[in-house]
Design goal:
The complex is a heterodimer of chains A (about 180) and B (about 260). In chain A, about 70% of the residues lie in helices and about 0% in strands. Chain A is built from 9 helices and no strands. Among the domains of chain B are: about 5-50, no CATH class; about 150-255, Sandwich (Immunoglobulin-like). In chain B, strands 5-4-7-8-1-2-3-6 form an 8-stranded antiparallel beta sheet. Chain B starts with a helix and ends with a strand. Residues about 80-100 and about 110-120 of chain B have low confidence and may be disordered. The chains are: A mainly alpha (about 180), B alpha+beta (about 260). The interface between A and B is large, with 78 and 59 residues.
Amino acid sequence: MGLLSQRDLRAFEAIYDRYNAVVYSTALRVIGDASLAEDVTQEIFLRLWRQPDRYVASRGRFLSWIISVSRNRSLDEIRRRGRRQRYESASPEQQAREFPAGDANDPSRLALAADERDRIREALALLPAEQRQVLELAYFHGLTQQEIAEKLEQPLGTVKTRIRLGMQKLRVWLKETLEQTEA
Amino acid sequence: MEHEEVRELIDAYAIGALDPEEARLVEEHLAGCQECRQELAEAREATALLALAAPRQVPSPQLRARVLDEARREQRRESAVPGGRRWWPGAIGGLAAASLALAVLAGFAFARINDLDSENDTLGQEVTAAREMLTQQQQVINLSVQPDVKTVPMSAGQAQPQATGVYYYSQARDWGMLSSSNLNRLDAGWVYHFWVLTATQAVHAGDFTSWYGMAGYRFDFDELNLNARPIGVCVTAGPQDDNTPPRIGDYVLYAPLGS
């Protein structure tokens, strides 16, 4: 990132090559439109090029930061285009694609973390389906707990509990994984 | 809101599932609680797992070429145009935010383009930048007419009493945007700095330069890592790499933000 601050194009190129798939995949998952997802991806990288100091290393990993930026910019794009109802109007088949089974076979691999990706998917697969669903509705569709409750026709308290339990499991899994990596 | 209550909400806050009022209460508590800020950082790491588990897709090779070509163009432009880095790109966003200002600006810019077309190569780069600005106007107009946009007039500070500006932000606090005019031309190496103020800190949201006294700037809140709800925004002028937090007397423009 230091080289990026010095306007080093090669450093920027390396960062693009390393992170373009995760940025684009996140954008595509949120937006559901390849062309718009590319627009968002382009905007995110060019903003990073123009202002690399937006990322502050002491506040967390770059990967987590750029994923967060990708998710939020994509939701922003959806809200701007009034396409928030996309999921609601999707067919059951489309919805099934958006919430694939935990053991869905994905032949591709994230270049930056080859087997890590598999392990993450395994961890998510361990979550009860109803917990994974509320997390994904909040994260990828930008719905609040109240909106999720209305959408799923579940009590608000149930949705809150599912989010809390699902997040706790992810955090425990992440903590254990990081400890194993460091050991 | 009590500490334990907030802790119960941290996970939902991290994943963006709280309604705006709940989120505001959490942010107020976060400002004074290091333990909860740490908790939030861990929760945000966990939310990233959801994205990493999404099916991997790769963008087209053409996108790579577009992104790198644009970066290269901007680098050339920075070295060619006096005033240097970020001479234009950061200013594109907010310029078009106010429709009226935009209309005036567009006419002005077209006039400048016609003038500049006959001048030398350096100015030709400026023409290119102005044309790029105009092509992006529609995109930014779309932002400014979103239903949840709030508009806050900015006051001029002692530093440049003639300056005018308007700050726009989405009520969901996804992004903020500045549109300003009547700004002084700055010395070489100096830029305008944009700050978001909370009760306890001034967060540098980026810098920009003016174009014939006009400038705009857009940022995303999620990139700022604010520890609390913003209570104001301000613009200062200073050296490019000097991010010293602003003092009230330094303000070029300032706007308090309500709850």
